[in-house]
Amino acid sequence: MNKVYLLTGGNIGNRLDNLRVARFLLEQYCGKIIQQSSVYQTVAWGFKDQPDFYNQVLCITTGLQPEIIMNTLLMIEEKMGRKRDIKMGPRTIDLDILFFNDEIINKPNLIIPHERLHERRFVLVPLSEIAPDFIHPVFNKTVLELLKECTDELNVNKIDMNY
Asked: What is the pTM of this model?
């Protein structure tokens, strides 16, 4: 079985419900969720004139290969109403592969590990909650080390509610 870390997030509609639906669909189409972080709220990264995001990191086990998972994530995003009108713009749901086992994949439509995860606190904070000692296969550093070195200054605030 493959162990895959995913980032889920969104900033349109009922953000908590959207994360819940995404978890349900991920288990239905991709694999079993074996770990999940808390939900975190962060201001938008990049295109800033939009609502705050809710993000959560999940770890799943799956028999699927990376390309199939990526296509499935895109299908789930579309099923949940994701529109790609503005680059880095508002979205109901965004699903990204952070790590696939400890593999390094560099293809035109698929880069694993996620090429910017080490630059983004909204990824590293929830990831460090469930996988602080996971070693990034490119940088050969733990997630916790990457978080300590991250220069992103955006606040990442844990949502204190049942989800």
From this structure: 0.93
